[in-house]
Design goal:
two-stranded parallel sheet, Rossmann fold, 2 domains, 515 residues, 7-stranded parallel sheet, alpha/beta, elongated
Length: 515
């Protein structure tokens, strides 16, 4: 069998969603590790007045592409941006560009999707289901197409406790739902959405399940594979450890914990946190394209790209490593010292939200108002709570994943490809990965320089001293107001105070004698 770089040599590749988190990493890895690929076509919509070519030019100037720029300086010449809007008829791709794609594309990676959990059902259907249908229709016209890779999510079937590497039939006929949504107004759609999604937690997982079934039903003679990553996090090794560029998923939660804003979260300490590094997912995706394209399997293959069944890591362990990392390497201008309490009890969580989130935020905003500044902490806390509510389902449950196809794929790789396209998560050391992940949020999301660490540590020590002083004053006030009303309590109080004075006097006398 040819190696993965040899397979991609001379091929024309189409990527949708190339400006997204996974799409960027896919583009970078493909151009760096398969340097003989002929061209990579990317469908990009115009945004904020920026043309697709300008958006791609800005994107490839980011830190992610530094290693590629050093190894292959002329890589931008192989990127061909095409104007497109996946929500429009025929993807809003010009006739000329459509013909170009039909005539030359060999491999399609469909990564584009909306990953917003609370997206209205109509919008989620447009981007996750109808756009997939349009890409499939275009793929059927491609004269030299060898393989079509559809990127889904491991949580598409999260209403099941055991998830095999198969496409499950959805609860409704996607064609009938598409037809119904055309005449329903938004109010009616929002009304029936909870009934439609059933046991699934959001429209994202629901529409991704519909998209998988659509791919299976409409692929026809196309050679198709489906990649299902779980919670995609920062890079493990490539192009360098810890690269992350967004607040999505756990990254925003980690930053909030490091800043001391997040103090409590509803989660099960023993639930498996199925984090998977983005470079693991991309390596598996490229390997899946190589295998399906070169071996032409008889049926559609699904790959559960997860870690929970192979190298499990629990939310309690996540919390420990995040907090310990940010205590050693604090974020700048932290609100409080990092400390998070995980609880699966709703009432206890609500109590701690009131005590450790809302009350301090209210007092801080009051201080800002008094000093003539705009209050902002309550808005931050509100946004944080919305994000936490969306993640609660995934931090409170565990799933059993079948990963036989992933294991098979790994075993098919040559020793050379196993090194170059490593997705063996058995080698993943979670403590090291979590530290590089947290440091990645500091360096690449918040743009904080490591040279600022001494000042950040000093600020954290100051916050610790303030906390100790506040707790001491609070304890004294509680004692004096509520407890020290009996003669016995007063006697104990005077005894403790006298001991403190004696200790201080002894310490002062010892210091005087020494000098």
């Amino acid at each position: 069998m040819v190696t993965i770089p040899e397979y991609f040599a001379g091929k024309n590749v189409l990527i949708t969603g190339a400006t997204g988190f996974m799409g960027k990493v896919l583009l970078e890895k493909l151009l760096r590790s398969c340097p003989d690929v002929k061209a990579v076509y990317v469908l990009v919509r115009q945004k904020s007045g920026h043309a697709p070519s300008a958006r791609i030019a800005d994107m490839v100037n980011c830190k992610l592409f530094d290693r590629l720029r050093e190894e292959h300086p002329n890589f931008p010449d192989k990127i061909v941006p095409m104007s497109s809007d996946l929500t429009q008829p025929e993807l809003d791709v010009s006739r000329e560009d459509q013909q170009t794609l039909v005539d030359c594309i060999n491999i399609v990676f469909h990564c584009a999707a909306t990953i917003r959990f609370n997206e209205p059902l109509k919008d989620a259907m447009q981007l996750n289901v109808l756009a997939t249908q349009k890409i499939m229709a275009l793929a059927h016209r491609m004269k030299h197409l060898e393989v079509f890779i559809h990127v889904s999510t491991a949580y598409a079937n999260c209403d099941r406790s055991v998830i095999e590497e198969v496409v499950y039939p959805p609860p409704v006929d996607y064609k009938k739902l598409i037809d119904a949504l055309e005449w329903m107004d938004d109010k009616l759609v929002n009304l029936i959405t909870p009934k439609l999604i059933g046991d699934r937690p959001n429209t994202y997982t629901y529409t991704k399940a519909l998209a998988e079934y659509l791919v299976q039903q409409e692929c026809g003679s196309l050679n198709v594979a489906i990649i299902r990553p779980s919670i995609v996090g920062a890079s493990w090794k490539e192009p360098f450890p810890g690269w992350i560029d967004n607040f999505n998923g756990p990254s925003g939660i980690f930053i909030a914990a490091g800043k001391g804003i997040l103090r409590t979260m509803r989660a099960s300490n023993d639930a498996v946190a199925d984090l998977v590094p983005v470079d693991v997912v991309i390596n598996a995706t490229l390997a899946a394209a190589w295998y399906s394209g070169s071996q032409r399997p008889k049926s559609l293959l699904v790959y559960n790209c997860t870690t929970g069944g192979i190298n499990p890591f629990h939310w309690g362990e996540v919390e420990y490593h995040v907090i310990s990392t940010f205590k050693r390497n604090p974020l700048e201008q932290a609100f409080r010292r990092p400390n998070v309490n995980l609880t699966s009890n709703h009432l206890i969580n609500q109590y701690w939200i009131a005590v450790s989130h809302k009350a301090p935020a209210f007092l801080y905003d009051l201080y800002l108002r008094i000093t003539g500044r705009s209050p902002r902490m309550m808005k931050t806390i509100t946004r944080l709570h919305k994000a936490m509510i969306l993640l609660e389902y995934f931090t409170s449950h565990s799933w059993v994943w079948n990963t036989d196809n992933v294991t098979m794929l790994l075993n098919q790789l040559s020793p050379q490809d196993k090194k170059l396209f490593n997705f063996d998560v058995r080698q993943l050391h979670w403590a090291e990965y979590m530290e590089s992940y947290c440091m990645g949020t500091k360096k690449y999301v918040l743009n904080e320089e490591l040279s600022g660490l001494p000042a950040a540590r000093k600020h954290l020590n100051k916050l610790r001293n303030i906390r100790y002083a506040f707790n001491t004053i609070l304890l004294v006030l509680v004692w004096r107001i509520f407890i020290a009303r009996s003669q016995m309590a007063r006697n104990i109080w005077y005894f403790v105070v006298s001991l403190c004075f004696k200790f201080l006097s002894y310490f002062r006398a010892s210091s005087t004698m020494r000098y």
